[in-house]
Specification:
With 218 residues, the protein is α/β, with parallel strands linked by helices. It is built from six helices and 13 strands. The chain has a seven-stranded mixed beta sheet with strand order 2-1-3-4-13-12-11, with helices on both faces. A hairpin with an 8-residue loop joins strand 5 and strand 6.
């Protein structure tokens, strides 16, 4: 009798970014063995690293740095080991943000070039369900290309600057877009590094399917 396949081990990085238990439960439901921890060694060893982010960019970056998050993410990506950033956990991957605590732009982790800026829309924050425009060949959105996802944010990457030769993989990054007043980057697939501006753990069946796609890729 064949033994059941081992569940991929996913660490949800616990660095003080709000209530992350919904992400833990969502990942468990789609087949992951999930550990919520701020321990760098555990984050480095996991099959997948989930980087959440809720609230202010400055506070999230301060928490990430205190938990040694930048080094952990760098090492994982250098070894081709998957990382998924969500909401401000996605925004942190860019060079910086105009959302700051003291009036000065805040530096990000610099995995992708460009700034995260305030949405130019009649109503901000963008809160609710929105459709997305996915690229051909997406793996993250396979099966949910035409679905809507749940967003809660006032800032986003309004442009995409990374050229194919700057990617983590031989193929060009796959960028998904959405619109709220203006176009913004809703998700990126760049080799081992993926991210979503929306909250898949709060996006019902579509979000669960997306998380399952990611977990199955680990």
């Amino acid at each position: 009798m064949t033994a059941p396949a081992a569940r991929p081990h996913v660490v949800v990085l616990d660095y003080g970014s709000g209530n992350v238990h919904s992400a833990v439960r969502a990942l468990e439901r789609v087949g992951a063995d999930v550990e919520l921890t701020g321990d760098a060694a555990a984050a480095l060893a996991a099959d997948g690293l989930f980087v959440p982010g809720v609230g202010n960019f400055h506070a999230c970056l301060r928490g990430l740095r205190a938990a040694d998050g930048p080094r952990v993410i760098d090492i994982r990506l250098a070894g081709g080991r998957p990382v998924l950033g969500v909401c401000v956990g996605m925004q942190a991957l860019f060079d910086g943000s105009s959302e700051s605590a003291g009036g000065q732009p805040e530096e990000g982790l610099g995995q992708w070039p460009g700034s995260v800026d305030r949405l130019d829309a009649p109503v901000v924050p963008h809160m609710g369900w929105s459709s997305v425009r996915v690229p051909e060949g997406t793996r993250l959105f396979a099966g949910v290309e035409d679905q809507r996802f749940y967003f809660v944010h006032s800032y986003a990457a309004l442009a995409w600057h990374l050229h194919p030769e700057g990617a983590f993989a031989a193929v060009a990054p796959k960028v998904t877009w959405a619109t709220h007043g203006t176009d913004f980057v809703a998700a990126v697939e760049n080799g081992p590094l993926s991210a979503t501006q929306f909250h898949p753990e709060k996006s019902g069946d579509a979000g669960a399917h997306l998380l399952e796609n990611w977990v199955r890729s680990l």
